[in-house]
Amino acid sequence: MTIAFVDAHIHLWELARLDYPWLTPPFDESGPNGSVAGIARDFTVADYRALMADWHVVGAVHVDAGAAPHHALAETEWLEGVADAEGLPSGIIGFAALNDPSVGRLLERHAAYPRVRGIRQIVNWHPDPVRSYTPRDFTTDEQWAKGYGLLARYGLSFDLQCYPGQMAGLARLIERHPDIPVIINHLGMPVLTDLDGIDDWRHGLRALAALPHVAIKLSGLGFIARDWTIGRVRPFLMEAIELFGTTRCMVASDVPTDLLFAPVGRYIETYRDLSAGFSEDERRDLFGRNANRIYRLGLDL
């Protein structure tokens, strides 16, 4: 692929450096993503570059990698040092628990690092405990909404990883804060086993897409179905692009997490083939220019 690729969602880790509870044995199939044993090893910039050698990567955004909350700032500090030495990542999305009444202090410290662009707190909650990433739906808490509102004070965006059933409520909050850019992770994670899972996803995305400061990542296909096929995921990808337009969608590899479900080449080839009928400008937007603009990376594209 000769079009410049700014990978909008990657993870790096050195497991001996920070605590990563979700990457710590024992592993089993009980969590939302099944066993993560296959990726529970160091993943460095060198590993990333080797994996992505066939794709013209010119930048990448690191999104919080699930380090223990007490290591949130340590992860950012480490990543800044990595970027100074290796040239990647180009931007950093740190972790902060927005439901913490004292979160403002952490946001201020994150924002002091030059490559930090935003915050992610995974908020996927589902009535089925096996599906949930959180013990309760934080997005319905007044304290969480207050923490979310503080992001603008520090010039931070929000990476939104939620389930479709949470989107309508979140859309009302997000609408009240047009100065906080929001980037939906992993196509909005439709839950196909829910009775109305596709309709819930469609209605939720429509509510969010109506807000001009919301964008979406074309990533995480294994979260739709671990055994995903191009035919199965193509309608979701095309509908997301139709709803958000080619100026608010970003291709992302989500490595190494997405490697749990398929080789990276299968993902990138899927996105490339999907966009084959688009104009060159549209493809350049999807693969690089949107991520560069939305995450304010300042790359020369």
TrEMBL record:
Domain Amidohydrolase-related: where? Answer: 6-297
Q: Hydrolase among the record's keywords?
A: yes
Is the keyword Hydrolase in the record? yes
A molecular function annotated in GO for this UniProt entry is: hydrolase activity
- Keywords, in A-Z order: Hydrolase
Signal peptide (UniProt feature, chain positions): none
Q: Name one Pfam family in it.
A: Amidohydro_2
What is the similarity comment for this entry? Belongs to the metallo-dependent hydrolases superfamily.
* Protein's name in the database: Putative TIM-barrel fold metal-dependent hydrolase
**Species of the source:** Stakelama pacifica
